[in-house]
Amino acid sequence: MKKLLKILLIPTIVLLLSVAAWAIGPATLMMFGGGDGLGPELVQNSNLEGTYATYWTDRNTPTTNERSNTQAHSLTYSGHIVADEAWDGAELITTYNVVSGQAYRMSGWLYVVSGTCDIRDVDNWLDFAMDTAVTGSWQYLTTDASATATTTDMIKISISSATGECYFDDISVKKIY
């Protein structure tokens, strides 16, 4: 009898949990499931550990745009930019999709050696810009913004001062539920 009860009880519990999950919805489950209320990472190679040239390209004409192990916020590598003109930097090659009216969280870590370094979206569909001129330590920048169109977008890291040098790591864009 106990064996029959176990055989019937386990599938019934699984079915009830599945129906409850469907009724509650993924956003609510994420909030109650210990999640941070954010969707999956939209930036490929956000931690800079993958093949750099596959994901990042020159923005204008930087003196240096490379993967480096001189400074790293997490793991082994970061992006490294040296610029001799304002707005030189690195640009994400791969794009990600954004939906009009949907909120997104953008964040990243910058280590400024000199000048001012910033993180922006290339086409301003999320219309955000974050910068720092604090030198000598990793600075965390984050902001939330809503997409102004349903389209593709990508990130750029630039030196916004006339000249400068910075490292960047753990660049992130995630949908907010």
What attributes does this structure have?
five-stranded antiparallel beta sheet; 177 residues; alpha+beta; 2 domains; 3 helices; 41% strand; single chain
Characterise the protein shown here.
The protein has 177 residues and is an alpha+beta fold. The protein folds into 2 domains: 2-32; 52-175, Jelly Rolls (Sandwich). Helix content is 19%, strand content 41%. The protein is built from 3 helices and 12 strands. The strands form 3 sheets. It has a 5-stranded antiparallel beta sheet with strand order 1-4-11-7-8. Strands 2-3-12-6-9 form a 5-stranded antiparallel beta sheet, with no helix packed on it. The protein has a two-stranded antiparallel sheet with strand order 5-10. A hairpin with a 7-residue loop joins strand 7 and strand 8. The N and C termini lie far apart (46 Å). Mean pLDDT is 83; it is low at 14-34.
What's the helix count? Answer: 3
Helical amount among residues, as a percent range? 10-25%
Report the end-to-end length measured between terminal Cα atoms: 46 Å
Number of strands: 12
Supply the helix-strand structural class: alpha+beta
Topology overview:
Elements: H1 2-24, H2 26-32, H3 52-55, E1 56-59, E2 64-68, E3 78-83, E4 89-92, E5 96-98, E6 103-114, E7 117-121, E8 129-132, E9 138-146, E10 151-153, E11 155-159, E12 164-175
Antiparallel strand pairs: 1-4, 2-3, 3-12, 4-11, 5-10, 6-9, 6-12, 7-8, 7-11
Compact overview of the structure:
By secondary structure, this protein is of the alpha+beta class. The chain is built from three helices and twelve strands. It has helices at residues 2-24, 26-32, 52-55, and strands spanning 56-59, 64-68, 78-83, 89-92, 96-98, 103-114, 117-121, 129-132, 138-146, 151-153, 155-159, 164-175.
